[in-house]
Known about the structure:
Layout: H1 6-28, H2 30-36, H3 41-68, H4 74-91, H5 95-122, H6 128-157, H7 166-188, H8 204-240, H9 244-272, H10 274-283, H11 286-291, H12 297-312, H13 314-325, H14 330-359, H15 361-368
Helix pairs in contact: 1-5, 1-6, 1-7, 3-5, 3-14, 4-5, 4-7, 5-6, 5-14, 6-9, 6-13, 8-9, 8-13, 8-14, 8-15, 9-10, 9-12, 9-13, 10-13, 13-14, 14-15
Amino acid sequence: MKTTNRSILGAISVAHLLNDTMQSLMIAIYPLFKTEFHLNFAQIGLITLAFQFTASLLQPLVGSYTDRHPQPFSLAAGMACTFCGLLTLSLASSFPMLLIAAAMVGSGSAVFHPEASRVARMASGGRHGLAQSIFQVGGNTGAAIGPLLAAAIVLPHGQRSIALFSVLALVAMFILTGVGIWYRNQNRQPKVPLTAPAVSHQTKRRVMQTLAVLLALMFSKFFYFASISSYLIFYLIQHYAISTTQAQYHLFYFFFAVAAGTLLGGPIGDRIGRRQVIWASILGVAPFTLLLPYVSLELSAVLIVIIGFMLASAFPAIVVYAQELLPGRIGTVSGLFFGLAFGLAGIGAAVLGQVADHWGIEMVYQICAFLPLLGLLAVWLPDLRTKT
């Protein structure tokens, strides 16, 4: 049995941390853009849409292509696109330029995620849930760091200071070049037949039904996630009359909890089954989302941590579950589901921005509170674990 290559998993996780730090930095400085460019909530949502919809469209295409034609150094090339996007973001003088910069950062992510997920599986040594969690927790940790860096550097020093973070992209490019060399060498080795969970008993119709359920669960998770990542700061400022800096710390609590949930979701799925993790993490969060709009500031911080932890534990399980459902199509599946994550979050941000403009920011959380109830659909997910 192959051993887990922890050095490669560590490298790809660190690269994911840097990538998602840069992504969440852009989201965390929305208040700066809103003030300097006189944007409304709908325009804020369009920035998120430009970033995440670009990634959503490109990721499945990148994954499908690299399933057939592996590109070991595409990881570094994608990070170069993010580098250019950050520089453009720091120099943008109009709303259209902000959209272009956001789309460039999204394109970099589109190249990074499918191939990085493939590398994580290649280095897993058969512990696919663990590898996916290690990979994803880097991204979630970066998402937690981004708001802190925004509060400490960008908000006090202005838009031009965003250019400083292009250094992170350069560091990531260096790391990913090393990963690309390992990836290339792996492809040159004699191919060993892969072992995969037995899914031959699943009919094509059953596979399509299962994918439809997974799509509904992704919709539930990432629409709610968009309500937090894009609008929590504005909600806290308006609902509790706190400062932007205080609100940034609440966003950090959420993303830190997301990182913890991601780290545990994969290994737990390896042990007890991915279906059980998906079921518990999405439906189980519903009581807390339903309470969130009606509690004190202090209790809201506690609920945000619980919600972030539980929701995050689902995604590693969903990705590996889908890879087991469609073995041999790792890039396509990874690109599809990471693309769905970006796309659904982007569409959610745009839709919820319209809701906030027309009915108020509080209404966003009152409506989204019911989304986790879609977790009931997990009852139709088949158990893919190998029977022995």
